[in-house]
């Protein structure tokens, strides 16, 4: 349980004669054969990719701490720690993170991690940069010694045990994670790498899409084997580390299951008919990707084309918006849904999430969706890296899923008498399927955006392709 959950329960229980026990671990006594914590070795994330040293990042954190007038700041989220100290690991599948805690004080930086996970050379480098290393399980005893001091906690990310370890004389302040906000804004170096990583990820997608088209109906292909092939296409690219999440490879009705995870039991064979949805991403040393394409494998109905086009209109609506400083994700969400809503249709997931830089594919602080408060109420700032992914789904045997996802970077637009305006730079590079579009439903402005996008895809990817792939891509990127 997190500290914020604890505080909510305390309010609910206040007048019910219920008390929450302190330092109570019921699991420890009953979990037999409990596996040891993962202890994979960590490694440095090179500054040439990160763009900022850990010393610079820690200095920025201390500046934010000063605004809260605190002496210490507790960091518990593995992705926050990885970003702050420019370290990466493999303790969690698909996320290049390591289990650790950290405390930043006004003049010291403490990293709590199993010593066996830290190579000698990295240990030396960390200490040279002013980082003191402690064993992972010593965090509670460290916090217990913070008598008569002050500490800032990210309430929703701090567990009860850590909160209860703090002495009563310690002044506790709470706020949104400082590091999450800092890492959510990609620096210029990170942005440039992301634009480059999209080229090789796009090349991998083209290899996969051409393979699929060439072999569908001729060779047995299933949802699982297609996802495996896409992984192989990415793995052939430079600096590839792994997938950024398990691919959502859904044919027909399975594509309508929004967070579908294909398994040997659910694996369905693909045929040259109907709609196939593939949502996937890669982890590279120089960036993280996340992309969804919906494909016509054969015959599709006019109704399916119309609904795909409504989703496309929403995608373009969000991709082309210009918005003033201070705009929140929940203010932009309507743009992606408007065409669907006009036809009494909708989708039951958010429209966009933050994406890490060689880090978790889902990260805060921003989010685009219909919710209120929290990440939905975070203003979009220059350098934020987000997804644009409206969709539509019809469940059942004859069902199908539609989702179109590109990644975007928030960038400055015009500065006017009304303040600074921003727009989205779409950086994902992969053709969309012309076969699924009802061109008559698009405005001239929407058609221009689409044709310009497809042309950009061809121009940036074709130099990395062989002759056959270039001809294939040219056909896929023809203007509509």
Mind explaining what this structure looks like?
The chain is of the alpha+beta class. The protein contains 15 helices and 22 strands. It has helices at residues 3-13, 26-30, 47-50, 54-68, 78-84, 120-128, 139-144, 160-165, 178-184, 188-215, 223-235, 302-319, 329-341, 444-461, 467-476; strands at 43-44, 72-75, 87-88, 101-105, 109-112, 131-134, 150-154, 171-175, 240-243, 248-251, 275-280, 282-284, 287-288, 291-296, 322-324, 352-354, 363-368, 385-388, 391-394, 400-403, 406-416, 419-426. Strands 6-5-4-2-7-8 form a six-stranded mixed beta sheet. A four-stranded antiparallel beta sheet has the order 15-22-21-18. Strands 9-12-13 form a three-stranded antiparallel beta sheet. The radius of gyration is 24 Å and the shape is globular.
Number of helices: 15
| Oligomer category | single chain
Counting DSSP E segments of at least 2 residues, the number of strands comes to 22
Average pLDDT over all residues = 96
Give the overall form: globular
Strand composition percent: 15-25%
Task: Report the C-alpha radius of gyration, rounded.
Answer: 24 Å
N-to-C CA distance:
53 Å
How would you characterize the largest beta sheet?
6 strands, mixed
What is the strand arrangement across the widest sheet?
6-5-4-2-7-8
Helix content: 25-40%
Structural class: alpha+beta
Q: Which spans have pLDDT < 50 for at least 5 consecutive residues?
A: none
């Amino acid at each position: 349980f997190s500290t914020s959950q604890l505080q909510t329960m305390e309010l609910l229980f206040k007048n019910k004669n219920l008390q929450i026990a302190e330092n109570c671990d019921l699991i420890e006594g009953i979990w037999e054969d409990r596996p040891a914590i993962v202890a994979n070795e960590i490694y440095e994330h090179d500054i040439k990719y990160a763009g900022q040293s850990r010393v610079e990042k820690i200095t920025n954190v201390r500046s934010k701490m000063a605004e809260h007038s605190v002496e210490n700041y507790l960091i518990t989220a593995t992705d926050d720690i990885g970003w702050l100290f420019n370290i990466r690991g493999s303790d969690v599948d698909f996320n290049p993170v390591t289990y650790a805690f950290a405390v930043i004080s006004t003049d010291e930086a403490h990293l709590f991690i199993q010593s066996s996970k830290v190579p000698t050379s990295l240990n030396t480098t960390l200490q040279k940069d002013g980082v003191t290393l402690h064993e992972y399980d010593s965090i509670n005893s460290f916090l217990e010694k913070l008598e008569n001091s002050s500490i800032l906690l990210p309430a929703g990310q701090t567990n009860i045990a850590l909160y209860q370890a703090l002495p009563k004389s310690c002044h506790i302040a709470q706020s949104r994670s400082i590091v999450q906000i800092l890492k959510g804004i990609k620096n210029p170096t990170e942005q440039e790498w992301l634009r480059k990583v999209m080229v090789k990820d796009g090349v991998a997608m083209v290899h996969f899409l051409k393979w699929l088209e060439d072999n569908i109906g001729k060779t047995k292909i299933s949802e699982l084997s297609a996802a495996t092939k896409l992984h192989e296409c990415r793995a052939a690219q430079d600096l590839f580390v792994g997938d950024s999440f398990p691919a959502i490879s859904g044919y027909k009705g399975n594509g309508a299951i929004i967070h579908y995870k294909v398994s040997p039991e659910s694996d369905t064979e693909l045929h040259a008919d109907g709609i196939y949805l593939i949502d996937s991403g890669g982890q590279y040393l120089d960036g993280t990707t996340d992309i969804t394409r919906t494909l016509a494998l054969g015959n599709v109905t006019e109704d399916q084309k119309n609904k795909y086009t409504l989703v496309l209109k929403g995608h373009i609506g969000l991709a082309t918006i210009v918005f003033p400083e201070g705009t929140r994700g929940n203010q932009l969400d309507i743009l992606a849904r408007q065409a669907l809503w006009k036809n009494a249709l909708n989708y039951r997931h958010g429209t966009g999430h933050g994406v890490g830089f060689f880090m978790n594919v889902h990260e805060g602080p921003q989010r685009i969706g219909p919710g209120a408060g929290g990440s939905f109420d975070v203003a979009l700032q220059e350098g934020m890296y987000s997804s644009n992914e409206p969709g539509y789904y019809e469940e059942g045997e004859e069902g199908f899923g539609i989702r179109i996802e590109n990644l975007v970077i928030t960038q400055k637009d015009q500065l006017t008498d009304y303040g600074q305006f921003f727009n989205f730079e779409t950086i994902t590079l992969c053709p969309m399927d012309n076969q699924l579009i009802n061109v008559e439903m698009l405005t001239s402005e929407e058609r221009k955006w689409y044709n310009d996008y497809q042309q950009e895809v061809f121009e940036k990817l074709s130099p990395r392709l062989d002759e056959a792939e270039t001809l294939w891509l040219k056909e896929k990127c023809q203007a509509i």
